[in-house]
């Protein structure tokens, strides 16, 4: 799916009034992210520049799989890799909706308005994000590979995609999210988001500025461009990255004060683990099992396309 779809699912409905802050909140349904400046996030940058996290940060920012895609995926092998990645990301999005459902139990009982909004957002996000990801990434990539999915009903395509096995990386990511939904606090759940909502944008900015990046084609249009703001031909962090950065900066001191046992190493550990899982998801696109599963999916859909003619 596009990075934009995934990020919108991460950030939509996340900043409601049940969030406490040590200063008046500018977030949630009061926040117009179009008015935000480009943010230098003290909280995130402390994690990002912590020497203990350097290995994970470098593995994410210099990932050879993504760097290869940034040069263009016109080659069929690279296109299949990117398709395989998007299918696993499709599963991740489904698991994230389930994760949000588990999170509902953590909303204070007095915040009925926010409970209602969060509950309604689950259905909205499912229909507004998961199916569009098929339309915006998976179907176009399959068409590029010669599979006439335009003749196949979307419901059938989704059914066949769901028969594909989830990679070990995706299963691990889903388990990480759901385990933390049951055992950690709301602030920590936003720390987990850094790798995706902020990290994707930071990586996209780097790729956009690299001379070797092909600024056209499927990977640029589906992954890089949705993850950046471009002003005067210069790439900047996206709105959703800035929104998360703002929230973490405004609330980190409060949560540290409220949780006397809170060790900053918990934040570093969550940050590192999420980055590792993002890297694993990238690299799972090249695994033998994922590649074989993709071939089986393409074979099934090719037969369906021929049968519909």
Please provide a written account of the structure.
The longest helix has 33 residues, at 112-144. Helix 5 runs parallel beside helix 8 (168-183). A two-stranded antiparallel ribbon has the order 1-2. 37% of the residues are buried. It is 67% helix and 3% strand. It has 309 residues and is mainly α.
Detail the poorly predicted runs: 9-39
The strand count comes to: 2
Q: How big a fraction of the residues is strand?
A: under 5%
Helicity, in percent?
55-70%
Cα distance spanning the termini? 27 Å
The side-by-side strand order for the widest beta sheet comes to: 1-2
Kindly state the mean pLDDT as a whole number? 82
Largest sheet: 2 strands, antiparallel
Order of helices and strands: HHHHHHHHHHHEEHHH
The number of helical runs is 14
Structural class of the secondary elements? mainly alpha
Q: Give me the Rg, rounded.
A: 20 Å
Short description:
A two-stranded antiparallel ribbon has the order 1-2.
Detail the topology: elements first, then pairings:
Layout: H1 3-11, H2 42-48, H3 54-61, H4 64-70, H5 76-103, H6 112-144, H7 154-162, H8 168-183, H9 186-192, H10 194-209, H11 218-224, E1 228-231, E2 234-237, H12 239-258, H13 264-284, H14 288-307
Antiparallel strand pairs: 1-2
Helix pairs in contact: 1-6, 3-13, 5-6, 5-8, 5-13, 8-13, 10-12, 10-13
Features:
mainly alpha; two-stranded antiparallel sheet; 2 strands; 3% strand; globular
